[in-house]
Structures
1.
Amino acid sequence: MDHTSLPVRQSGEKKQVQSRGNMRIIFSGLFVFACFVLAFSYVLFPKQVYFSGIPKKVFLSDNGLQFSFRGVEEKTVGEFLQAQGLMLTEKESSFPPLEAPLSPNMSIFVKRTHEVTVKIDGEEKKEWVEEGSVDDAISALHLDLDEDDIVSPLRDTVTFRRQTIVVTRVSVTEEVAEKAVAFEKRANEDDKLSWRKTVVTQKGEKGADRLVYKVSSHDGKEVKRTLLRTERIKEPVAEVVTQGTEVKFGKSHTGAASWYAWTGTMAAANPWLPKGSFVKVTNTENNKSVIVVINDRGPFVPGRIIDLDKVAFQKIASVGAGVINVKMEEITN
């Protein structure tokens, strides 16, 4: 064996090891540089897609509906949505935005909007709102509503495209009104006052009540009025009428009385007493009496001293009796 060649061989092997180490360092540096360039380029050029060659899995939430897609090869969010036939109006949006590049396991959220018409305070407002409840639409439009205001349809109803929402303003107020209270009429008698006189001894005065109402109005028009309470603010004063009862009698006559239908009043006919004079006629069988005025002549039948109007006759006897015995007293006052 030639031992002189051994050191030369070992020297060559050391050079090969060093060469391989240098290559590893060079390749490592190139990989790091490539990664840096890739990352730097992604920051500077976000519209470029660096996963275009890799089929991706994408999650989609379209107005609350959840979907997942596999093998997606589109480059941007907009291209992906277009490939799925999902078009956005100018009032709708997505997150991430349409120009954002797709990446594996990306979640895309689509916000849908539609136009609704709100009728409120005599005006019509057309607004674009996100899909949701009527209450959500009211909040999005910053409408100032009171708790009593009526919203149609109901606030928890889901809105839809071209829907009309009607807001009715409701106001509840208290109103006060006054109502006159009628006075009662009282009658008394005075035996020192002529029977033909009636005197108002106390003048009646109306009282007053205060009425408190709860008034409900819709858009300024009253729809309901409820009486809450009544307060007496002035008591009425009764009217007192005094009727005289003093009767003074003159001559007295007895005889028969008949009846006839003449004026339909408390009147009678007599052969001799002056017209306009008054007499008291008493049925001698039952002591019922009536005062009548003489306004006619008759009866011209022997024994009969007075012919009573039917109305007056009925007060002291039955008209079926025809003729009754009476006492007739002349009244002088």
2.
Amino acid sequence: MTSQPSPPSTPTARGPVDALDCRILLLLLREPGVGVLGASRRLGVARGTVQARIDRLQARGVLRSMAPDVDPAALGYPVTAFCTLEIRQGRGGHSPVVDHLAAIPEVLEAHTITGSGDVLIRIVGRDNADLQRVIDQVVDDTHVTRASTVISLATRLDHRMVPLVEHLLEQRQQHQHQQTPP
């Protein structure tokens, strides 16, 4: 027996989320403290539905955290820099470098990249001298062969998800509208 494909309105057929998921995500992004009950009231759906959707979004890795968004500058780390690391290729791949970086609290992110470098990291410091201390810690690993650092003077566009989820919601609604018979 062959299985029938899911209808286009289901999350599996149209990507990891549907229109209701997008509406829930947008509400949580715009008002992180809204809570499940508040979200259900604002969206006009049952509390159990909102909770089930949030649970599913978390289980699928779409909603990675309900944690607060903390500003490093407000914590006393106003200097942000990005370092491109070149690493020694060999056994273990990127794991030894990532383990080393994970032990440095001021390393906020690490990404494997294409191009002239291997790993791009975002780091913070209390001032330029402290940033130098962090960079020294980063390169103090036998697997790191070279580092190139740029200091961010100002954040012009902070990490954002609302426009992307709004775009996805619009796509889902257009698709749903196209699927509705006249």
